[in-house]
Amino acid sequence: MRRILFALFIITGTLYAQNPLVTHMFTADPTARVFDGKLYVYPSSDTYPPAGREEEFPRFCMPGYHAFTLENGATWKDHGWILKENDVPWGEKDTYAMWAPDCIEKDGKYYYYYPAKPKKDKAFRRIGVGVSDNPLGPFKWNKNFIEGVSGIDPGLLVDDKNDAYLFFGGGHELYVAPLADNMSEITAEPILIEGLPAGYKEGSFPFQKDGTYYLTFAHVFADEGYTIGYATSDNPMGPYIYGGKIMDNIYNGTNHHSVVEYEGQWILFYHSWDISGFSKLRSMRADYMEFKKDGSIKRVKPTLRGIGTPQVNDTIQVDRYNDISGANTTFVGGNEPTGWMVCDTRMNSFVRFDRVKFDGAKKIKARVASGQRMGSFEVRLNNPKGKLVAEFPINYTGGWNTWETIEADVKEDITGIHNLVVVFKSDWGNTKAVNLNWLLMTE
Ligand code: FUB
Asked: Are residues 327 and 228 part of one domain?
């Protein structure tokens, strides 16, 4: 049943900028890039094993890659398949082995790197590449994998000298090799990256800031599990000096990430398993990241709220809150796409969702379900007693899982970015006023 429902979610598709970023499919290992001012994300995808082959895939089952762009203030657009495993020219078919990819621009062309299981070759994974004039493809896939490179997790760097490097590897060592101008060949044997701390490492993601080379990577500590760490160098090939953790362990399982600067803010993309609860069915996330004045990276705390500034026509997932009081959140039920809702709402309970751009909003839609008809909920600015923006009466919708979209007028024009607070009003003693899935401001 869960599989049927998930197929339905893929068809209906719900794409938000809060965490996790998308809920209509499983996405992992997100590489984020900014091309011409637009934010792109290239994740891998996790899926359920094909029927009858469950025992072959107790862990990862990864069929290929979608690509996503951030639209408006907080909506992710799914551009569909970039590459499916059976279209890899040199790959073994039906092995569901498409692990973490990367995509990078050099001299106006876009190069997409991916690992796959090679046919007629003993290597665990080889790394292939395709080229396109467009960041979303279609890519022209090289007939053969990159000679001399064996491993997972390609991480690409084009530095301020326009030199390109391929980082890769998973295990106790990570490797780097310089790339030729055609971006399809290495110009020297890969070397082991020196200076990194001991322990299992994977998911190299290199970038450059203020002349310093940063190498970030997933790093496993025996007593903690997967963390995300970083090291710095004045040479892309190393040696590097370990700088510490960017993110502590978030439960366990893998954590694969990327770092990008978008509209003046640094963002860490990573993954968790919010929807499935299973570390092999992951969902990509993002949170803001900061540097200290000395160039070191401040530890990033994972949040539900994530990134993005919803504006008119972006869905606001209030269940991905910054603060909640007197209410709870849980998975949404009934015929809604997968996700969460605010529930167990009672008199004066509230949920606060930070950073909403109100400009141009004339109406607010709300997706609600209620098994009772007493009370209302209010949208207020900044705090539970802040300016009243809109008010919604609560009516019986047919039950706690029967969803309706209702609408209220914005009482007066509001400009700028504010925190949005939803305050619930009901009879004292009621423990459920209304279930609230999302809000959407319209012109
Ligand atoms: O997604 C499969 C593998 O898990 C990736 O290649 C690793 O980085 C880890 O996230």
From this structure: no
